[in-house]
């Protein structure tokens, strides 16, 4: 049995002065594998990742570990506990509206000087020095004048500080009502086949504030900047956002399956000795982020969702009925919606009540088999 | 084809001065049947009743009507449009917290004088005069000083004014995540068999502010008060709260089934000529409201719900797992919950995240076959 | 310097498993005075009471105490931290809508048996035994099956358990935008003059779920029940809800003034040796709760409040302008509101945007000098 | 008396199918002045602009108009009516968290081709053609596939379509608790002196999604792009965000003063014949946006705000007390906050309860007399 340690990190204080803490679990490997960082529940309603971390811990304590592990459930102690009616209003800071997963720190600014200082370094030196730089950069913000940090930044930077120490970063999310899908940087596409996830979104190098981007963009930028100097340096970090299915649900059986999916990927990344975790034999599809289309409701009304999640939809087939009962006599009360492209329905809105312009669906278009 | 008329009644104004209106649909029968009032969506997230009214209208326009019908979808124009995150926060007035279905007017006060004035009247006179009194009582409030009415009362009283004109009142609701069930006054128990609803809650004469109570309590009180004077007077109104299943969902197929269930009941109440709608052959169970037990979470945590809705649960069998990932090392991370009584699980909370004390389940106990 | 002790009591757990605690401060007197219980901030936005407790502690540590003191700031660790936009949404449980100050336990049921058992007891025995009974009654609920307690009850009962140990209970609240006022049971009217509070609401014996009522109603009921048996027993507990002014504000200077007001009342109640705290010489007005009139907005719109808080308003004088800019051409854009009674404006709504039926003002009517 | 016309534009539909409309008021001048567009209340709680539009209309109908006017109160029919507790939660879309004033359309993309096509046009032709292009660009979005527009974009683009027709655009906002201030593009600095607003924020050419930027950036970009081609073209549009003071307040007297401030500016812009409106003689200060510093709370707690709004604060003087009553014994319960720069306090947070990291204040630093 591997030993697991727990630390509770302090990430803020609330109005009655009580501390906001996040539990951090750690397992040590034999020193020959990568460092793996996995967090869950940055968005308050997206709880299933906690169950996946539970199932991972149950497995990891029995495996022969090469890798070190840092696992962080309940990554957002505000979002996680923010109720509004029965549901959890945890997607954005309730005070400011800022998405909790858009507050990580951009490290772009540190690259030019770093490159100038490492034109003659070897890859291993670069890797260690850059990691140290990333952590220092975060520390400067965390240790700078306290009045310069927002609530969300304080949470995000503390987590990012942990993530920067890892070679592999998995941020466990869910959609609203959703099939499984994976946000994967294009360079890591070959690794995507090792997850048991049917739908893979390929994303370019662009920082929008999310943890996966905060983890891989600096290394990708570094690789590009060194290449511009004629130096070949492979991107040293894999980072993914793993969308586990629907929010507001705990399913321990599904969590076990998803833990095995992660163990399969980590086996591929040589995190274990003697692991037999293999990817499932499933059809996988990839789609570029530019072809991931949001479909906003063209009408206000009550929605019957018709497109099966993960289902391949032909252009022009019905995807939803919109019921508008206050127009029963004045116009047709039922409007059938279609989408004008062949698509895979990945997720839909969590409620049946929508305004005109509410995001109804997100679709893979121009997808191909992976 | 029967003709349907629409009226939009004014029930309030919002901050930018725009009117709050509710659509009211009416069909006229041949004058020999009861007057039927059906409303839906008083709680904003409980939208499926609108779909049932849609399916009812589709049927009613083709049936041979004895009864008059008043159908009111979107009964609450504030609750229906109150979003908080993706979900609809429509169970209570967002300003005051008052449950929208606890604001109807109590008519108890009019009974003593009415009885004194009708000690020698016949049943038909009593029925007509009391109905008129109920409507007058509401009108006095609606036409009294404008500063004496809350937002919710204005909506509720306008609806109650319509309901008081009917002999049969159905208020279509849903639970959070729920099986179908029916709130039925004990005197109407024989009628409950004509709905296709497995679970029937029997309620006594007690006014708590809901529409079903506001509709039947005055007639029940009147019947009791007349009986105390030695006069036999049957309770002249049937009123039910029909819980259609889960909130935040539109399912037109299920709505058609539930419309047929209502048509079966209304056939029994002689609302139609030549209707062949019959109740489905299903097992039905009844439970007294006093035996309808709320089970509040004994722990804060993330919930995996295990009890199947409508399922018959043996005392002591697991009903939920509570995951507490911040106690992975310090205590067991998974707590199995049980209930100490044999029960039918009727509904559970809509979210997987609960505080200690959040209502997890509601159970029928001491139930019997109906 | 008197010594102050602190205990943090556990009143619940939130979704990420973290404990909800409330700080309790205690000071011991010389054993010859009453036991005083003061809490603040049960409603999340009503924070000024915390500052009053701060100022009280600053004073109490220097006074010569006869009384024992229990002081509880931050009485509601959920409400206190519940943000929705910039403001604190702490008046009701965000899940259920239940007002946090309507969840205390009703002790009515214990009285008949208690009276039967104490028909021959002396007053001191009755007082001690009844206090013990009240605490036992609460303990039975707190120690009963965990699944029977709501989140709010768990908080309320834990506080009530502390309050029942006291002879004097002060629950510090604020209005929305408000002048100071005091909820005072009619029997304690003579004591009301010792607070520096201009406006006093006299309330009868009726339990609605609030802490003041939960504290005095059982003793009042007991006194009445004993009187019915021919036994004279003075109501042994004083309990008040103290409305300190407006919510969402901390003002340490005002808090010091209000602490002195409380010290003046407590001096009158012989809580100190050698205290010179005297009530301020101000005009005081009392009004019976039945004459405390809510004025709901007769129109939806934007409100300019005109009635000065604490101001004596003549019937028919303007109390507000309602601006309705979408009717600039179709009708007058500005509506002047009046109230049809002479009144003192005690509080008004916290926002300028109101629906038709939003509570605009609360007025003392039929008031008299105290 | 000038005639005023009203049109209600349709900008969306809500869940019960009812239309979202915005009232638009228009006055025609003699054709020799600029076209002026003024809107208010895009953020739901920032209502005072509606009162300013009211006072403007009262004046404009009596003035001798050169300019045409388009005035839009209640610009956001969702935000304006979104209550959460007593306050208005109208700063962001309650579903997505997106700030309502960050959804306007970026026109940058149309500039390169436009410049290529107008290298030989005269200034007047350029102005007219570019305005037409801007409107066409918006129309393409509004008339494109309905499923491509979010709720907020539909509102914003409809307003922007009106604003693009104007030479002068004023977007009336307020701060939380705030002194008056003006967001002014640097090129329009001389005009800032004609408003009766003490504090002026100078902003560069950068599009972040707000209406003022959406109005001036395209013209500024165009001017720059033409200059790069050696063509001199003055920026043809003035656009300002006018921050009128505090949210959640209607004050008709203050509104009249602010209407006069706008009339003074518009007199300067030759909107009237024979207008005598002159700017007030007040001290004005300007500060570059980069020097406008947000001060986030270094602690969670209850805040007593000490810095007077509009007050000139010396570095190191107290700006707030943070009360932390759960640490009364374990550390000092009162923490005094200071800011390390000389500053003018422009606004502070609307509530006394703050998390660590909540924005407490915004300060002008490095300001100078205007």
Q: How does this model look, in words?
A:
The structure is a homotetramer of 370-residue chains. With 370 residues, chain A is an alpha+beta fold. Chain A has two domains: 5-288, 3-Layer(aba) Sandwich (Aminopeptidase), CATH 3.40.630; 292-364, RNA polymerase II/Efflux pump adaptor protein, barrel-sandwich hybrid domain (OB fold (Dihydrolipoamide Acetyltransferase, E2P), Beta Barrel), CATH 2.40.50.100. In chain A, 25% of the residues lie in helices and 29% in strands. In chain A, helix 1 crosses helix 7 (252-268) and helix 3 runs antiparallel to helix 4. The longest helix of chain A is centred in the middle third of the chain and has 21 residues, at 123-143. Chains in contact: A-B, A-C, A-D, B-C, B-D, C-D. Chain B binds chain D through residues 14-18, 21, 74, 77, 80-86, 88, 94-95, and chain D through 14-18, 21, 74, 77, 80-86, 88, 94-95. Chains A, B, C, D: Keywords: Hydrolase, Metal-binding, Zinc.
Salient structural properties:
N-alpha-Ac-DABA_deacetylase (chains A, B, C, D), 10-stranded mixed sheet, 5-stranded antiparallel sheet, Aminopeptidase, Succinylglutamate desuccinylase/Aspartoacylase catalytic domain-containing protein (chains A, B, C, D), 370 residues, alpha+beta, AstE_AspA_cat (chains A, B, C, D), 2 domains, hydrolase activity, acting on ester bonds (chains A, B, C, D), homotetramer, OB fold (Dihydrolipoamide Acetyltransferase, E2P), 7 helices, globular
CATH topology of the largest domain in chain A: Aminopeptidase
Described by strand count, sense and barrel closure, the largest sheet of chain A is: 10 strands, mixed
Uncertain stretches of 5 or more adjacent residues of chain A: none
Overall tally of structural domains of chain A:
2
What does the average pLDDT of chain A come to? Answer: 97
Number of strands of chain A: 23
Pfam family, one (chains A, B, C, D): AstE_AspA_cat
InterPro entries (chains A, B, C, D): AstE_AspA_cat, N-alpha-Ac-DABA_deacetylase
Domain Succinylglutamate desuccinylase/Aspartoacylase catalytic (chains A, B, C, D): 33-268
Cofactor (chains A, B, C, D): Zn(2+)
């Amino acid at each position: 049995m591997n030993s697991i340690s727990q630390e509770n990190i302090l990430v803020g204080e609330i109005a009655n002065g009580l501390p906001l803490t996040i539990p951090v679990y750690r397992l040590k490997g034999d020193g020959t594998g990568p460092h793996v960082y996995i967090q869950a529940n940055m968005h308050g309603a997206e709880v299933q990742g906690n169950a996946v971390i539970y199932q991972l811990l149950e497995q990891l304590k029995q495996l022969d570990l090469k890798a070190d592990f840092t696992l962080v459930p309940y990554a957002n102690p505000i979002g996680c506990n923010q109720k509004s009616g029965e549901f959890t209003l945890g997607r954005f800071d309730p005070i400011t509206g800022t998405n909790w997963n858009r507050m990580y720190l951009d490290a772009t600014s540190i690259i030019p000087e770093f490159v100038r200082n490492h034109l003659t370094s070897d890859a291993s030196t670069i890797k260690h020095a850059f990691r140290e730089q990333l952590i220092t950069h975060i520390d400067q913000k965390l240790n700078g004048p306290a009045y310069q940090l927002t609530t969300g930044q304080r949470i995000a930077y503390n987590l990012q500080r942990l993530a920067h120490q890892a070679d592999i970063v998995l941020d466990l999310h869910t959609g609203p009502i959703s099939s499984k899908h994976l946000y994967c940087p294009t360079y890591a596409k070959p690794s995507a086949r090792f997850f048991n996830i049917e739908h893979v979104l390929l994303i370019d190098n662009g920082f929008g504030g999310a943890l996966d981007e905060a983890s891989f963009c600096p290394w990708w930028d570094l690789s590009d900047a060194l290449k511009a100097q004629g130096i070949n340096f492979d991107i040293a970090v894999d980072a993914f956002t793993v969308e586990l299915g629907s929010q507001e649900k705990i399913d321990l059986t599904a969590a076990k399956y998803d833990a095995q999916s992660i163990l399969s990927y980590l086996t591929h990344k040589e995190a274990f000795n003697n692991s037999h975790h293999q990817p499932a034999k499933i059809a996988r599809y990839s789609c570029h982020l530019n072809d991931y289309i949001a479909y906003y409701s063209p009408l206000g009304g009550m929605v019957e969702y018709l497109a099966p999640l993960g289902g391949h939809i032909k252009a022009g087939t019905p995807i939803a009925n919109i019921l508008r009962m206050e127009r029963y006599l004045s116009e047709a009360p039922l409007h059938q919606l279609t989408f004008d492209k062949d698509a895979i329905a990945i997720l839909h809105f969590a409620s049946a009540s929508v305004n005109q312009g509410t995001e109804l669906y997100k679709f893979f278009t121009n997808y191909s088999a992976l």
